[in-house]
Design goal:
The chain has 429 residues and is of the alpha/beta class. Helix content is 31%, strand content 27%. The chain folds into two domains: 214 residues, Enolpyruvate transferase domain (UDP-n-acetylglucosamine1-carboxyvinyl-transferase, Chain, Alpha-beta prism), CATH 3.65.10.10; 208 residues, Enolpyruvate transferase domain (UDP-n-acetylglucosamine1-carboxyvinyl-transferase, Chain, Alpha-beta prism), CATH 3.65.10.10.
Length: 429
């Protein structure tokens, strides 16, 4: 953990960058490649700490995985050929790894134990464990499986028809991945559609799956076959430069190969609604994961309301949207975002506390925040809480702040964007 002091003098950001691979898809490429029989190759893999934790877990299960830059090769005998690990599976700071692995491991014949870092130890796991238990999974842990460490005794699972209480791609994915090994047809019902990378990848690896009007269903017992996965740039990472380009004077940034999956593109809708000067050129909308080249320029922005069904499509982008709102004309209301309270930290409190230190006119609500803008930001010492998205929010704030911004833990940004500061430097003019 190392602090970093950032001070810029009316910077301009100009140029082209390609953001790192999508974190959600990178995780799943390794998971599906390990579940599938045969060889899977991955290009554009995110070499962030979270995704490397996923690789480490599957290596401990006996899967052969080789990493060559952003290319990954996976050779797997399939789930029945996995070895029972002699070590605890360590998931680091990755909620995706921890929660999706619960679903995967519940359908094996193995006994496994998982734990993560201090942040993971505080994040709720029963939202995943409870529906898996309805399928017959045997999961033990602190406070009846609410917190890690978690012990899983794999066994025979039965399919369930599960209605999601809140929109969560991690819970949905855990149930679907358990459903691969369950007897019968697993059904998951969503009132608000969460990111659908798992459903897309099931098809990519050869499974038959039906998705209709927020209802996902497929039969258990299907065999997945190794394939090639191309990981697009992460729109959640791109969001930080989309905001940076729109709020710094004289800027024009081109972001190439950005994933624009319709369950993840809420940030683009918010930027358009606020009046951002932005163009989106879709590369191949029929790809397994569609991509686009996005150009953003300095913009005159207007406050807006962000809530309802769009929230699952931009839940990870809310910290940077809050910063964006401090530079927009008028009031921005973010609501229906209670899910922020159970991220790497309580992101509602973290965002409000840190932006207030810089002079933002921002107040927390039970399910979001209210921001009045535009507000000149000052320098200040910010706490990242070990949360990569809070860290990047602070770094982008430094671009428009009148004074130095100090991040107490800049290293946490490497979880999802190891080259973040290199890309800032590349664009500075």
């Amino acid at each position: 953990m190392s602090s970093k002091v950032l001070q810029y003098n009316n910077p301009t950001l100009v140029g082209e960058i390609t953001v790192p691979g999508d974190k959600s898809i990178s995780h799943r490429s390794v998971m599906f490649g390990s579940i599938a029989k045969g060889k899977t190759t991955v290009s554009g893999f995110l070499l962030g700490e979270d995704c490397l934790s996923t690789i480490d877990c599957f290596k401990k299960l006996g899967v052969e995985i080789e990493v060559d830059g952003t290319n990954v090769s996976i050779e797997s005998p399939g789930m029945d050929g996995w070895a029972e690990p002699t070590e605890v599976l360590y998931t680091g700071n990755s909620g995706t790894t921890t929660r999706l692995m619960l679903g995967i491991l519940s359908g094996t014949k193995l006994h496994t134990v998982m734990t993560g870092d201090a942040s993971i130890g505080k994040r709720p796991m029963r939202r995943v464990a409870d529906p898996l238990r309805l399928m017959g999974a045997q999961i033990a842990g602190r406070e009846n499986g609410q917190f890690t460490p978690l012990a899983i005794q794999g066994g025979t699972l039965q399919a369930i028809d599960y209605t999601m209480p809140v929109a969560s791609a991690q819970v949905k994915s855990a149930v679907l991945l358990a459903g691969l090994r369950a007897n019968g047809t697993t059904i998951v019902r969503e009132s608000e559609v969460s990111r659908d990378h798992t459903e897309r990848m099931l098809r990519q690896f050869g499974a038959e799956i039906d998705v209709t009007d927020g209802i996902v269903s497929f039969k258990g017992g299907q065999t997945l076959t190794g394939t090639h996965v191309n990981v697009p740039g992460d729109i959640s990472s791109a969001a930080f430069f989309l905001v940076a380009g729109s709020i710094t004077q004289g800027s024009r940034i081109v972001l190439e190969n950005v994933g624009v999956n319709e369950t993840r593109d809420g940030i683009l809708e918010v930027l358009k609604k606020m009046g951002a000067k932005m163009t989106v050129q879709v590369d191949d909308e029929n790809a397994a994961e569609p991509t686009a080249t996005i150009t953003i320029e300095t913009s005159e922005l207007t406050g807006t309301t962000v809530g309802g069904s769009i929230i699952p499509r931009l839940i990870d982008e809310i910290p940077i949207i809050a910063l964006l709102a401090t530079q927009a004309n008028g009031k921005t209301i973010i609501k229906d975002a209670e899910e922020l309270k159970v991220k790497e930290t309580n992101r509602i409190d973290a965002v409000v506390n840190e932006l207030k230190k810089l002079g933002a006119n921002i107040e927390a609500t039970d399910d979001g925040m209210i921001i009045e803008g535009p507000t000149p930001l000052t320098g200040g010492a910010l706490k990242t809480y070990g949360d990569h998205r809070i860290g990047m929010m602070g770094a982008v704030a430094a671009l428009v702040a009148k004074g130095a911004v100090e991040l107490d833990d800049a290293d946490c940004i490497a979880v999802s964007y190891p080259t973040f500061f290199e890309h800032v430097e590349k664009l500075l003019k």
